[in-house]
Amino acid sequence: IAEVKVLDVQKRRIPNKHYVYIIKVTWSNGATEVIYRRYSKFFDLQMQMLDKFPMEGGQKDPKQRIIPFLPGKILFRRSHIRDVAVKRLIPIDEYCKALIQLPPYISQCEEVLQFFETRPDDLTPPKE
User: Example GO molecular function term (predicted)?
Assistant: First the structure.
């Protein structure tokens, strides 16, 4: 993964109302793809990273932490969902950029590569 840029948020109604982040991924071979990920998928990735790399996650010594912090889960009322998604846009972008700057044993691990790989629903996003 050469570069990651979070471009925007998009509302989806299928299977239920939620927001996805629109992410442009540039690979080392020059290929670029646009993928869509929910915040919950970032959260899942973060949990996998902290489990797999406890030292780098700062579990023994917080000063040793190199895995970036993910903006926390926010509880909100229904009317504020878009605001929260938009507010997280820059922190999510910074998180992605920091993640791919980590040493290769982390930035190129299976979990990170799978997260940024194009999935079938990225190619045919649901139409409104």
Answer: phosphatidylinositol binding
